[in-house]
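One thing: mind reviewing this one?
=====
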Amino acid sequence: MNLVIDIGNTAAKIAVFEGEELIEIAYSPNHSLEALKEISEKYPLTQGIIASVITLTSEMLQYLRMLDIRLIQLTSETPIPVNNLYKTPKTLGADRLAAVIAAHTLSPQHDALVIDAGTCITYDYIDANGNYLGGNISPGISMRLKAMHTFTDKLPLIPIEGEIPSWGNSTETAIRAGAIQGVQMEIEGYIQSARQKNPHLFVFLTGGDSFYFDTPRKNSIFADKFLVLKGLNRILNYNDTHS
């Protein structure tokens, strides 16, 4: 069984795969792997992969040392099953790379646009031949709400949850609707622009905020909250067969 650990800006996801099937997923704060002990005792793990956008703490390293398995830490030097054309691969987020690898695995005969809506929103493109062409980064919903509060004198910090009218009828609803509908229209714009060039494009939507959106194109979008984990598992299996 495979252990897959994805440490993001806000949380750590610890998953167990059997082959390509996701068996279980546990969550921990992003500076802690406290759920790892229970997972490792529950399943006969044989190998693992860890991807992190933060520096691993001594506590996290201690948890990892307890594992008696082959463990890969994803870096720019790790062999991957696609051609990475990013000009600065060392600065490329592991989550972005894993997500496009999963998309290409699920749709190997199509170009794919991967939209990951989390702390930031990333838009990444991989073609049918497995060439990762790069992508763009934009502020996520929470970041936009915090920015409006931080960089103005009077705008309050608004929670994401709440009423979202077409046109805000209060400062709270105006800020929330502006942030969420702004992101929705941004996503729609990226999809429309990419599909003008490639009508047969596959679109994958993932991330913690990805299911806030109800777009007119929703039936042509493959929504998968676990796309990054599936991509990391694919990288792990690829390294197992090519080592």
Remarks:
- The CA atoms of residues 156 and 176 lie 11 Å apart.
- Helices lie at 36-42, 58-65, 94-106, 141-150, 171-197, 227-241.
- The first helix runs from residue 36 to 42.
- The chain has a mean pLDDT of 90.
